[in-house]
Amino acid sequence: MSGKKEFHIIGAGVAGLGIGWRLAQRGHRVTVFDKGEAGKGASWAAAGMLASILESEPGEESLLPFLLEAQNLWPDFVKEISDFTGLDIGYRQTGTIFAACERDDAGILRQRYDFLQKNGVTLEWLERETVRAREPFLSPRVYSALYSPGDHQVDNRALTLALHAACLASGVTIRSHAPVSEIMSEGGHVAALRCMGDMIPAQNVVLCAGAWSAEIRGAPEVNSGNLPPVYPLKGQMLALQMDPKHPILTHVLWTPRVYLVPRKDGRLVIGATMEDRGFESLQRAGSVLHLLRETFEVLPGMEELPLAESWTGLRPSSRDDAPILGPTGIKGLSIATGQHRHGILMTPLIAGLMADYLITGKLGASARPYTLARFG
Ligand code: GLY
User: Fold this and answer.
1) Which atom of ligand 1 is the closest one to the Cα of 340?
2) Which atom of ligand 1 is nearest to the CA of 272?
3) How far apart are the CA of 239 and the centre of ligand 1, in A?
4) Fold adopted by 96-149+231-318
5) How many whole angstroms separate alpha carbon 56 and alpha carbon 54?
6) CATH number of 6-77+157-229+319-375: 3.30.428.10, 3.40.50.720, 3.50.50.60, 3.40.640.10?
7) In angstroms, rounded to a whole number, what is the distance separating the alpha carbons of residues 302 and 321?
8) pLDDT tens digits, 205-229
9) What is the DSSP letter of 196?
10) Residue in 255, 259, 276, 317 to alter for ligand 1 test, most ligand atoms within 8 A of Cβ
11) Rounded to two decimals, what is the model's pTM?
């Protein structure tokens, strides 16, 4: 295959699989390694919110255009991957409600509204009657809300399975339970990967190992500290099961303390804590209590619903909560990690930007503020 390269991707989450698929579509040979079951890490644990607008907070204004760019890619991306794989990835365009139930909440809503308006995004204010007309099962304590018509959801697990299928159908090799323990370089150029005692020659490597990206020996360094500057930010999650014919919630719903994501099949995903506990995956009673209590506050009918599942995930957060994309100080070694709370939302954008960069050597303008070099 003339002009075609061989790529080795470390990490089979939505970033690694998305990049792998895009590279394979353009005729390149790709192998994706995962230390566990492909797609069953942070991508599986997520909630699948595509909330570029409501999930942006004061202080994150510089990231907002990147998030909005990612959001805009979703309709075409959903069509492309669904047509290609024949799989439904649970994209629901209901918009998102951010509800106020406590006295202090009104101030938080006002702050979010003002912040977004200053950055060119206008949300709708809903008074109590309008919120309850849209979501009749909300607590009477909800006295006002913001409505973001552009924030939606995708079923992140269905997305991960679809990306896996798309990769396989495009010729990508996916190796589950194949931990890469070391990235080896020679003369400043990546040369090989060590995986379970094997040394695999590798000239073009992409590090997409999420929160574990700094744990691999030989991972690229910047000037100070443990590197790359990415760490795990634990999230506790729950799912309840609603009757899909009579759901008690249809929009994605936020309060300042919890979010609820109703799937098409009646599953109600509830999240998520933000806990700085290293690589701990333990489910702690206090975290579960917090999610249940806050859900009850806003949606009291939840107490009759069966508990379907509880789990934790580890978000890959960087030192400035923005992604880390593109080149590293080691030639042939690129990186895509640090998605923080937005890994699912960023999937199509990161896949496209990284594949273009890997093929052409040019990093797209929207990714340029997010290289590893900014930490140096
Ligand atoms: N994007 C939701 C979360 O990180 O919990």
Assistant:
1) 4
2) 5
3) 14
4) D-Amino Acid Oxidase; Chain A, domain 2 (3.30.9)
5) 5
6) 3.50.50.60
7) 33
8) 999 999 999 999 887 665 434 467 8
9) T
10) 259
11) 0.96
